[in-house]
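Quick question, first post here. What does this chain look like in 3D?
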Amino acid sequence: YTILQSTPFHKINFEEFCCPMAGDESNIKPNRLCWQGICHTPRACTDLIYPFSGEGEREYFRVRDDFFSRDINAKRLLRSRCDARNRLLTPPYKWCRQWLKKEGDQIHSDPMTKGGDETNAPVDGNLGVNLTHLEQYNHRDIDPYEARLPPPGCSHLSHGGGSGSYHHVILFPRAKLAFCGIPKVGITQWIQFLRFTFGAKDYQASPYSKPDQRLFRFDMMREEVQKEILNDPEWKFAVFMRDPAERLLSTYLDKVRANSGNGGMEAIHFRSLYNFTESPTFEEFVETIAKNKTHCPVRGGPKRENLHGADWCTDPHWRPQTMACGISEFLPRITYVGSLNHIERQTRTILQGELWERYGKYFHWTTDKQGKNKEPECAPSPPQLKVGDTLYGFQQRPLNLGDDGKTRQSKVLVGKSIGAHHHATGSQSKVDRFYTPRLRRLVREIYRRDYQLWELIRDEKDVVSGSDLAVKISDECRDAASRLANV
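> Answer (accepted):
Ran it through. Tokens below.
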């Protein structure tokens, strides 16, 4: 490899070929270079434009000033805006605020907090509303700073509780796709796929410490760019949801229970953060979450109180899914709402066009002889393809969907195979063992908003539009949709 002046010679780890990203001013310690540098990707070391496609894209997506500004007042302003919204604990759940605002409707308080319940709205597909006429209203006048949600940027102050609604929205600029990532619903694989699209050869690595992927986080963008993306009809938003009970159990098994992933380090961190002497049982974990907070953010109070409630100050791994990406207020803005139950087919729909043809169908992952995905390293070498290997594609399993809509069994390889990487902890097979009838009822109450959407999409083989869901889930949205469709 030819190393240019962009990367000082002494800052390169030749054993793993890792280097600081060109232009990254972070002072990476040598023992962290593998994790925080870019590996096996010479362009990242020398090209100041990397990972962008050009100078224009780099300038448009440059990081907002208050993220790295040394201006204390700018940081204080961001914190005050985030704290003010976090103190509300939960969003109003208007679902289709842009429709109501366009009509000049008075936005009332949340009916569920006053004994009302919008879950009784009809859920049949024949609503007498031509949804195609509503497309023009799905992305107008959306201001994430005006809504009663933590504004974009809060993840700069916290990666845990209080990180805001837009913490895990990642951008694919060339396809104008904004993917709403939700922890424990496959967000890690989508960030790895994002790095694959701009040529990072170490895309199989755990992505969160890699500096290139941060440059495509919606939360990092300037305010004017965020508003442009939200209100530009050419930008499509997509999200996958998961059974709330299965997701919570997966979180417990992966992050909370002793001897969980990463050699138990996650469980040790959890115990320290919430002042447990030992890992709680699943029942204790659920019961603690079921207790409501009295205020948020909690500073200087009992550590255990931070675990109470499913609200803005809840850790993103078990924060309600409907609190992500503005879903609770701007559901019609989500173009594609998918279910983890049908991820293969629906991923291809979301990536249709260039993203699938150029990247999705060629995404590959190294597995062992048993077909299991290898644990991610900080600097894994790119998978070595050879004649006879089968590429399944991103989020595709060996049973692939053909262009005619029929499934076919792919070739099963002997030895090393190349396949899709799936985030799994075996939680689905353990649901019956961990859940009692009482715990199931408790979880349904904690995540009642998530279940409103989940029960509408879990059996849908194709993605569903947010507009369609809004008119099914809310009487108020359906009435507004009927008026708008007749304009």
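The longest helix spans residues 72-86.
Strands lie at 18-19, 38-39, 169-172, 177-180, 236-241, 336-339, 365-366, 399-401, 407-409, 418-419.
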